[in-house]
Amino acid sequence: MHGFVRNSVSNANLCDGLVQYRVLFVKLFMQAQDSADWNSDDDLDLQIDNYQSSPPSSPPAAVPSSDELFATLVDMGFSPENIARAIDEHGPNADTVVIIDAISKYTVNCEASSSKSKTIDHFLAMGFEEEKVIKAIHEHGEDNIEEIANALISSAAEESPKIKEEEDIEWSESDDEKYANFLSSDDEKVSDSSSENGNQLRSLMNMGFSELEASLAIERCGTGEDVSIADLADFICAAQIAREFDEFHADPEEQKPNVKKRRIEPRREPRSSAADDEPLRLPNPMIGFGVPNEPGLITQRSLPAMARMPPFFYYENVALAPKGVWDTISSHLYDVPPEFVDSKYICAAARKRGYVHNLPISGRYQVQPPPKYTISEAFPLTKKWWPEWDKRTKLNCILTVNASAQLTNRIRLALEPYGGEPPESKKKYVIEQCKKWNLVWVGKNKAAPLEPDEMETLLGFPRNHTRGGGMSRTERLKSLGNSFQVDTVAYHLSVLKPLFPYGINVLSLFTGIGGGEVALHRLQIPMKTVVSVEISAVNRNILKDFWEQTNQKGTLIEFADVQDLSNEKIVELMKQFGGFDLVIGGSPCNNLAGGNRVSRSGLEGDQSCLFYEYCRILDVVRETTKTMRRS
DNA sequence: ACCAAGATGACGATCTCG
DNA sequence: CGAGATCGTCATCTTGGT
Question: Where is the composition biased (Basic and acidic residues) (predicted)?
Answer without folding.
Answer: 248-257
